[in-house]
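Give me structure tokens for this 436-residue protein.
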Amino acid sequence: MKHLKSKYSVLLTFVLVTLPIACKNDVEKPITELHLPDINALFDSYETIDSLKDYSRFANKLIGANEDLQSSQIYVEAASLYHQDGKIDKVIELLHKAIDHGMANPKIISKYEGLNEKLTSSDGKRLEQRLDSIHDKLKDISHFGLEMESMNQFWSYFERAKKDPDNAKVIFKEFIFEGPSELRDFYVVRYLNLENMYAQIINASPDYYEYLKGQFDPDSLTALKSKTSDWMRTFKKIYPKAVFPKVFVVPGILNSGGTATEMGMFVGGDMYGRSDSMPTQGLNDWQKEAIMNFAELPKLTLHELMHFQQSYRDTKNAETVMGAIIAEGVCDFFVELSSGEELVNENLAYLEDPDNMTKILADLQEDLLTEDNSRWLYNGESIEDRPHDLGYTLGYLISKSYYENHKDKQQAIYELFNTDDFTSILKGSSYAFVLE
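Here you go.
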């Protein structure tokens, strides 16, 4: 598992899920006295600690910073650090705490190499039982839901912050601690600090957020949930091992349509406000282009659902360009397979030109086994010589051709979600030559 700070250097693609969460703080304190860590600052020292292999000390630092916030994501990250130090009892303890506060990935054990064989203590066996229980709940499609509580509660805090900008950060802190518990993890993976919330919501684009309030019509949401559920039922037939978490629609800061975490899936409701009357003052060029129509929510929800199915065991290539683009491309391919709607976008049109495809594949060959995604993923604000996020499209083409070339389609589906060797996916596709 890569350390948490690396997740903040990119714009991921989508959404979050969880089971009932232990909420609010165990010890009642005035919100002014609660510690809300600056996540960027918290991880500033990681590289130094990583070079010294002083993982347990950093894990303790995370746990201390998380005393009031109680984010399951931070507990998972601290467990990863203890795992690197071989402290299995601490790993088990923290994974229990993560579940207590919403972690809902039944396959979490596979993220910790060798941990499954070491769950011999009573707490280890109880951890396995709890994860099995989570899996039993999530495999039933009736568990899926689009949860809007965070969006619904946000508007009163937004109005107060807009009227009183000097105290906006304090008001947003109240929102984090008083709102639905899933906000604790969303803060960790997307807000990062109160300054980011203030800068986007109040300083840069308050008119857009004011406008956004009118975009979430309950009747429209019901229709979208119905379409999403239909596609999920189709996916269940395609992949019987599928699990179906709830999706939490949350107010983001215009930096991601959604995010998949170990907890599940978050949808940034702020990214679904496109219309002819959408205010654009205070939005940057990437935001103006990336904001989507509300009707696009089902496909993007389904994309992130696919992330939740993935359980890759290829630790050697997980962080390479190859692993990253296949992981994203698999999601787009299964959206197509589940919805019955063929993927059509500007990136595919760009790659239909043979000259463009030749150049792009040559570049991919250069970067394939590196960890430099700058030309391939999460580059909407930085790439100039090609369409952004071409890695999604190449990963989709690789995944689709692997499936089409494979004689055993069910085995192909299993490997696309669970491979222990990303090179085998590439070798089985029509793009194996980029490995040469």
